[in-house]
Structure formats: C-alpha cells, structure tokens
Amino acid sequence: MTGAISRIYYPKVFITGVGAGGRAFLTPVAEAAVRRCGIITAWAEVIKSLGFSLEGKLVLEQNCTNYQEVLVKAAKLARTKGEDIALLVKDDPLVYSAGLDSYKEVFKDFRIEFIPAVSSLQLLAAATRVSLEDCLLVVYKPDAAGNIDQSDLVVKRERMLKAYKAGYNLIILSDLEQTLAQTAGFLIERGIPADTKVIVGEQMGTESQKITGKSISEVSRGTSHWMSCMAVKQPEY
C-alpha cells in the first residue's frame, strides 16, 4: 500500500543587509529577497529610507525596545503561514556579531541565509583610499542588556594599539556608549601622537554623509554623529 509523501515546509529567513543608507547601495539580491518574502521585519526608518513597495506583505516594525520580541513574533507567524522572512538590517548584517546568537536561537528551525551589503566601514575605506587588507576593523560589542560589553571593550582597545603599532590602519565604528571622542582620547593616552591625521565619516552612504579630515586631538575634543566611523592611517600610507 502506498500513500502520499508528506512534505514538511521549513521556512527561510533572509538576514538582509540593506547598506549604509538609502537605495544607492542596495543590491539587486536584497531587493529580490524583499519581493520573495511574505513577512518583512525592519526598523521603521530603514523601511522609510528604502521606499520599498510592500503591498500585500506583512510588515513588522522594530524599535529599540521591541527588537527581540518582533523577531520571535515574525518566526511564529512564518511557521503558521508557511511564509519566508526578510529581516532587513542596516549596513552589512555581519558587521556586528551581537545578532548572530539570537538569530540561531529564534530561527533554529529555519533555513538561514545572509545577504551581504556595502557597510559604512567599506565606504570610509574607499573614501580614505586604504585597503581593507591593511586595516583592523573595530566594532564594539554590546552586552546582554544592550550596553557596551566592558570586557570586550578592553580587548578591542588593546587590539587597536597592537595593530597600529604593527603598521596597520584602523577603521573604527562609533557607538552611543563609545564615541569617536572617547576612542580618540584613549589612543592619545596610550601614545598615539595628538597630531595624527584621521578621517571621520558621519552618516556614511546617506544624503547627510559628511567626511572630514582632522587631527586625532580634534576628534577627542569634539562631537560626531552617533552613526560615525573613523580611519586612523599610518603616517606613510
């Protein structure tokens, strides 16, 4: 006796990088993921800045207080409806390691696919004309409460010093709790000359993008937009 073969549908979640800002650096692969998926999850400002046509799709907006809760809701709906999810992430989804563990936990029964994008770090490297091969990229990691992980901060700071002294350029992403001014102040305290030339990129890839050459001393005394990054180049580079 033969019977029908039962096919179990395992939904997919596309962790989709949408670039540093606006549609200019949005890839066709990312747009295809949005068209394919029935459930779209993203921060409200990301959806607004990209101007996607989302008619007929279930859109779940995230903010700083409901981020994890929305992921759980999206996963539950995808299982129930048999839909795939496009989780839109500003910048490149693998710039930050913080989300990786939560993705694995929330979407443990999903097929997970990462779609890369142009990050603000890459845009600053291009503007500064340095090769990523010759750079240390520094991104600060949050703790479980969303604050700067202090043990990680110590490790990253020491790594910065060792890399710069070994001849590497630094490209550093700012954070609300670890501003470029704080990072610059630390580097000066640990022996980086105060007149070292740096390039600061604010709101990279957006219409408000601003790229400025300064001394690291000026950065330590000033303020930058919270979405900023800084390139500290070797003198001979």
From TrEMBL:
Q: What is the protein name stated in its UniProt record?
A: Precorrin methylase
Keyword line: Cobalamin biosynthesis, Methyltransferase, S-adenosyl-L-methionine, Transferase
So, what pathway does this thing act in?
Cofactor biosynthesis; adenosylcobalamin biosynthesis
Mention one GO biological process in which this protein takes part, according to its record: cobalamin biosynthetic process
Q: Species lineage, top-down?
A: Bacteria, Bacillati, Chloroflexota, Dehalococcoidia, Dehalococcoidales
Q: Which SUPFAM superfamilies match?
A: Tetrapyrrole methylase (SSF53790)
User: Pfam families this protein is in?
Assistant: TP_methylase
**Gene Ontology molecular-function annotations:** protein methyltransferase activity
Enumerate the InterPro entries for this protein.
4pyrrol_Mease (IPR000878), 4pyrrol_Methylase_sf (IPR035996), 4pyrrole_Mease_sub1 (IPR014777), CbiE (IPR012818), Cobalamin_biosynth_MTase (IPR050714)
| Stretches assigned to the Tetrapyrrole methylase domain | 12-218
Keyword ATP-binding present in the record's keywords: the answer is: no
Q: Which Gene3D superfamilies match?
A: Cobalt-precorrin-4 Transmethylase, Domain 1 (3.40.1010.10)
